[in-house]
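Recap from last week: sequence in, structure out.
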Amino acid sequence: MKNARYFPFERNKYFYGKILSVDDFESEQRYNNNKRRAINKMLHGTGVVCGLNVINIGDGSISIENGLALDNGGREILLEAPILKKLSMFEGFDNDKNASDSSYVYLCIEYEEEEKELVHSIEGNLEGGNSNGKFNKYKESCRLYLDYYDPEEEISEADALYFQTLKLYENSGLIIKQVLPKFVKTGETFNLDIIIEKISLSADILLDYEIGLECLKYHNNEKVKISFDESKVKRSNRYVLSYKIAAKDVVDTDGSCTIKPENFSLKIGKNDCKLNDKKAQEVKIIKDNISEKVIQAYFSKSMDDYVNSIRDKKIYLAKISLIKAGNTYVIDHVENNPFNQRVFNSVLLQGLKKTEKEEIENLKSLCLKSLKDKSSISEKSQEICKELPLDIKSGVEKIEVISGKAGEVVFSKEITHGIGLGNVYITLGIDNESKNEILFGDFNVFEEKMVLPAAKAYKDKGTMIIGIKLLHEIKNQSFNIRWMVYRDAKERTKDVPEITMSIKPDMCDINVLETIYLEAISTGLSDNRCSWKVKEKFGGEIDSNGKYTAPSIPGIYEIVAKSIENPEIEASTFVIVREDEK
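Predicted structure tokens:
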């Protein structure tokens, strides 16, 4: 990129009698341009400011609306007037690509300037020409071109603040990426996404590999098994596999996801592909607010980091899907701004903030309405409830039906009802908002043939699910199911689980000076935190997160974990420390 650096900021000093040269005028322009572009880059970012939408016109043509964008150097990219053009006429179109190589293409835009308005010059001839003249002006415009390749890095600057991408494999028209958040709160879950993209590959792929976890867990296991067989799914150019990973109860430490070559298997058709070296990603486990951590990380960068990040990063206006046969192509559909490269101005941000505020107010109103509905029970019923030693919880579950035929069943998510473990009783009703009614029991009595609700309680989990059976075909309709869960309070004592604590792994074998994470597993405690100690005086060290560092002396050492909530509850495990055979 030309003029990639903005500094130093130097402007002309004018005085009476000063002789001005071309350098003085260029310095004046450079000063103003660099200051404006620095503000654009560091304050607004990169992306589309307005317009520049791409529309499929048909007949292999697209229309691009006029608009404005900012590139990664802060330069304004202006498309003054709309463009209507055949896709094959754009720079970069490759008609020789076969159908499997060109299922989609990206339309990109970048800054461009050209010299114009030839005028007479006393200095001499125009370079390469016979005229005694020079170009008088620069016209700033844009260059539109096509690109068949996916970006190699995270394009969205906003996404890059929160997420990190690791490229596991790239070859033979196949890219496999792994996406993790940069920060996660202690004990909370997050998505581990595996993204599989096929660019020029027709053969089916079979992927199997194992991710080793440290300070993280997947269904209480310290590894995740990734399996994908393309022959068993609907074919696509892009697949996303999501796994729910949980952070352990550790603070201010790094959770890691590690993939070893021996645990990685990939088949492309009949060909076996390997992972050349170990791959790893780390996610920071924190107890603070994630947004605050992102802001802190953002402002910890130096100005040089921003300036040096200037490179020819492309702006992708659209992803255009093609159906191609020989030299003929049809535009299937157009996805505008596929990587969310947008610049949000203050007006738009204020509008979004107002919308969020209204949504919060609506949520508050719904909560107040729900409380009023609960208070509408008759005074007699309230008196009975007070006299009976009952535990009662209630709520409303909204079930959406997109499209369903008579006899089909739609289920809610699993609901924690709040009563606890053991036997419970459940009553269900359906809001009939059009008639300001709530229906209970057999709705056929009232000739309301809509849906039939039912509930299933899980005694060992303290949860339930609600299902509705459709009594006729329904499309795009939602049902508010009111539920009440209750039980005899005398049965509470049956729900008190036994208090136990154990350490995972229960025994381990490591070399001197190596480290390993230990996890205390407890039941029956509301606070799972514990304190750690090594029983032997010179048996190594262990921190508050359970990270044990072996001593330099081989031996068998006992590690003790003690509950913070109930210090009488403790568990221990043994670590065998061996001399490093290397």
